[in-house]
Structures are given as structure tokens and as C-alpha cells.
Design brief:
This protein has 5 helices and 12 strands. It is an alpha/beta fold. A 6-stranded antiparallel sheet has the order 4-3-6-1-2-5. Strands 10-9-8-7-11-12 form a 6-stranded parallel sheet, with helices on both faces. Strand 7, helix 2 and strand 8 form a beta-alpha-beta unit.
Length: 234
């Protein structure tokens, strides 16, 4: 792992409680696999907080930035109550690490990604990696969030669906307006079943602890072997 001091190149709102932060490499080498993690902190702080890298390696190669989806508190603070992130501020970045990655040469031709909340970050990295490398096969994403406003990257994901790059399903669990067109409630087996057309589907699950606990048994009931279910593991 490397320790780098880098500057934030942009901060943009993702949801009411999270931001997408891009960090410029400024020529520093930083190689990683889709789905891996880096630990962040303000440059003057020694205690770092791990965050999944939301960009794909191919995107980083193209624009020399690393992207993170960072959850904020009600005052805009992050991590261990660090001050709000702003363009130009300095960050200490250590990484990459983690084995929750998209395989280099998967045997499967079908890929199912199941995200909850900010758990979309490493899955977004994997999906973009699969698309940008021309990975053959089908990609499906089932994305759960508390409210319709809490889906990060939703505009991008819908555009990818229109372009035929993935099949997108969404479900909101609370505070759902009548105009919401996605599903309602927590993920259940009935939502997963149409996405598991073949037991030889490689599945990736990332989100709140309850979701990560509940979903794998559902997948196994639908015929997915446990060796084809990957959970986030830092």
C-alpha cells in the first residue's frame, strides 16, 4: 500500500447525506482493482477511515483522479467528524486494499450486483470496469435506498440502462412519494428471482449489515452456490 498526500479536485452532491469526492493524483501512481478500498483522512490527521473507491481503474487512467462516495453527518462532517470536504483541501490517502474485487477472468457470463445505500460505491466501480473493458455477458443491479432521494449515481445508472449496458432495479424502503416508480420495501426473494435466470450467476453484495446478512440466503434459495456470492470484505 502507498501513502499519498493528494488534493481534492471536486466535491459534488450525490444525495442529501453524501457527496462524490474526486481526488487528483497529480502524476502519482495509484493502481487498484475495481472494488478495492483506500483509507482517507485530512492530511494533518493520523487516524484514517476506509472508503471504497467508486471510480473504475480505467476512469482513473483516463483522468488521473480517484473517486469516493462519502457519507456526511447533518453538519457536513465525515469520517470521525472531520470538517467538510472542499475543493483544494489536502487529503492523506493510503491504499489500495481489500479482496472484494471483480475477478480478472471470471468464468461466469452473468453478473448480479446488489447494493444498499452508499454500498453502491464499490459496485459502481465494478460495473463501470466491466463495461469499459467490454466484458461479455449480462449485468444486473438491484439497488436499495431509504428514500428516492438517497440513490447515488441514479442518473448515470439509468443512462447505462437506456444504453443497454445493464438492467437496473430499484427499491425504496421509507418516505416514498406516490410518484415513485420503483419497488417499495426491503429486498425480498421475489425481487431477486427475476434477476437470477441462471444459477451460474456471479453475485456481489454490499450495503448495510442487515442487508448483507439477509440477501445471501435468498440467493442460495434461488440456486446460487455460496461460492458465487461475494460480500464486501476489507
Amino acid at each position: 500500500m502507498r501513502d499519498l498526500t493528494l488534493r481534492v479536485s471536486s466535491v459534488r452532491k450525490a444525495t442529501p447525506s453524501s457527496v462524490i469526492v474526486s481526488v487528483g493524483l497529480d502524476g502519482a501512481p495509484f493502481s487498484y482493482r475495481a472494488g478495492q478500498v483506500a483509507s482517507l483522512a485530512p492530511s494533518e490527521v493520523t487516524t484514517r477511515v476506509p472508503y471504497s473507491i467508486a471510480s473504475a481503474p480505467e476512469e482513473t487512467s483516463a483522468d488521473s483522479t480517484i473517486q469516493f462516495l462519502i457519507k456526511l453527518d447533518s453538519h457536513g462532517r465525515w469520517g470521525d467528524r472531520f470538517e467538510p470536504l472542499r475543493k483544494g483541501c489536502s487529503l492523506s490517502v493510503r491504499g489500495p486494499s481489500g479482496s472484494f474485487v471483480f475477478p480478472d477472468d471470471p468464468l461466469e457470463q452473468r453478473f448480479l450486483f446488489i447494493a444498499g445505500g452508499t454500498g453502491i460505491a464499490p459496485l459502481r466501480s465494478m460495473i463501470r470496469h466491466a463495461v469499459l473493458t467490454g466484458r461479455s455477458g449480462s449485468i444486473a443491479l438491484l439497488y436499495s435506498a431509504r428514500t428516492p432521494a438517497d440513490f447515488a449515481y441514479l442518473t448515470e445508472l439509468r443512462r447505462m440502462e437506456r444504453q443497454g449496458q445493464l438492467h437496473l432495479s430499484t427499491t425504496a424502503t421509507r418516505e416514498i412519494p406516490n410518484r415513485w416508480r420503483g419497488a417499495r420495501g426491503r429486498i425480498v426473494a421475489a425481487q431477486l428471482a427475476p434477476l437470477v435466470e441462471d444459477p451460474a450467476t456471479l453475485c456481489f453484495v454490499c450495503g448495510p449489515a442487515a442487508m448483507v446478512s439477509d440477501v445471501p440466503p435468498m440467493l442460495q434459495q434461488l440456486g446460487i452456490d455460496c461460492t458465487r456470492i461475494r460480500l464486501e470484505d476489507w
